[in-house]
Design brief:
Structural class: mainly alpha
Largest sheet: 2 strands, antiparallel
Strand content: 5-15%
Radius of gyration: 17 Å
Helix content: 40-55%
Number of strands: 2
Distance between the termini: 43 Å
Shape: elongated
Strand order of the largest sheet: 1-2
Length: 90
């Protein structure tokens, strides 16, 4: 196990994670993918540690559908808090 952790740390040390190279959205996507793969490797239930992006978009569409005309107004921000750790702004 120690050798595996060492290999993982070595690979991260090689990666360019500079905020000028990788934007916030891409870094978030990388993080979500790492969480997903780790969860799958540990045979955990789907969504136990994260909510898939497709589910978040569906949730936002369902919750905000009654206000779709109101949401077309400029400078209006609505947020949804997902207890699995996501904050979606529309």
């Amino acid at each position: 196990m120690q050798k595996l952790l060492y290999q993982i740390v070595q690979n991260f040390a090689k990666a360019s994670l500079d905020p000028y190279t990788i934007d916030n959205h891409t870094m978030g996507t990388i993080y979500e993918e790492l969480i997903r793969r780790t969860s799958e490797a540990g045979n955990e239930e789907a969504g136990e540690h994260f909510t898939p992006r497709e589910v978040i978009k569906l949730m936002a569409n369902l919750l905000f559908s009654p206000d779709k005309d109101l949401l077309k107004l400029k400078h209006l921000i609505r947020t949804i808090y997902d207890p699995a750790g996501h904050l979606l702004e529309i």
